[in-house]
Amino acid sequence: MGCWTHLPLTICLLGGNNGPDFARSICHVFLNQSLNDEITDKELLYTELLKKDKLEGNFQSFGLLHALRDPKFLEQFLIFSISRANELPKFPLIYNLI
Fold it and tell me: Highest taxon of the source (predicted)?
């Protein structure tokens, strides 16, 4: 599927109903952090797609990976990843990226 290559799919997934699942997958694949003992089917799917992209050297993240270098953005991202999807407006740095 090439998760990173479609028109800002990264951004769409973060803003969608499964945004926290996708955020946890990003944390697992790119930050080597596992934030949840129970992995949802969506999170597993996203993780596999991201691992495939990473193995193929496809790092087109529309600015997300760069933004994760900022400590304040990273902090919000980690908290967002364990939140509910409808809580996105509580995370202004992520909300502005989307």
Answer: Eukaryota
Main-chain phi, psi angles of 85, to 5 degrees: -55, -35
33-70 pLDDT per residue, tens: 876 778 889 889 888 988 988 888 877 788 888 999 99
Whether pLDDT at 11 is above 70: no
Give which of 60, 41, 40 is closest to 50, Cα–Cα.
60
**What string of H, E and C letters represents the secondary structure of the chain?**
CCCCCCCCHHHHHHHCCCHHHHHHHHHHHHCCCCCCCCCCHHHHHHHHHHHHHHHCCCCCCCCHHHHCCCHHHHHHHHHHCCCCHHHHHHCHHHHHHC
